[in-house]
Design brief:
Number of helices: 1
Order of helices and strands: EEEEEEEEEHEEEEEEE
Oligomer: single chain
Helix content: under 10%
Structural class: mainly beta
CATH topology of the largest domain: SH3 type barrels
CATH architecture of the largest domain: Roll
Strand order of the largest sheet: 1-6-2-3-4-5
Length: about 180
């Protein structure tokens, strides 16, 4: 158990018998009344995001968490298969628990997996990755008045904006946190 004034972003807690990850906190100490902590948290089973205000002095149970480097093996429908790089144990995560990370999963990619009380819950892909452009419209010469961007589809099926000079078959570097083009790879 820990005081709610000591919880911060990235902490996994048990709240109403459900596992939650704290995504944002704000400690408030108004001039009148008791201090409190406002927390935004995500249910790790359902994906539901909620905000809760904890009174100063309240306690919550901290969940045992481990981050492990694992490898994405393959996708089978809505099931994504991974392997622990240390023990070689394989496990499956459902598409719903992976959110936007699905757009950046290529077979063989090393990812960090969050385990809570021994169960895999979510993944984190590397912040920058290289992808092959599989389709894009040709850039029109002289068409740079609009900023010079066009849509491109990468090998995972995700679509993003790239500069006009990018062609099909080229490798590009993408910021996976924002989903934006960085440079040619």
């Amino acid at each position: 158990m820990v005081q709610t004034s000591n919880i911060n972003k990235g902490t996994a807690i048990k709240f109403k018998n459900q596992p939650y990850m704290i995504t944002d906190t704000q400690f408030e100490n108004p001039g009148k009344g008791a201090a409190f902590t406002r927390a935004k948290m995500k249910n790790l089973k359902t994906g539901q995001v909620l905000e809760n205000t904890f009174k100063s002095g309240e306690s919550v149970e901290i969940l045992d968490t481990i981050r492990k480097k694992c490898q994405f093996l393959y996708r089978d429908g809505n099931e994504f298969h991974f392997m622990d790089n240390e023990t070689y144990d394989q496990f499956v995560l459902q598409k719903e628990s992976l959110e936007d990370e699905v757009k950046y999963l290529i077979d063989g990619t090393d990812v960090h997996v969050l385990f809570i009380e021994g169960n895999p819950i979510s993944i984190q892909v590397p912040p920058k990755m290289d992808f092959k452009v599989v389709s894009t419209t040709p850039g029109v010469k002289g068409d740079t008045a609009t900023g010079g961007n066009k849509d491109a589809e990468i090998e995972t099926g995700a679509i993003l904006k790239v500069p006009l000079f990018i062609k099909e078959g080229e490798l590009i570097k993408i910021n996976t946190e924002t989903g934006t083009y960085i440079s040619k790879a």
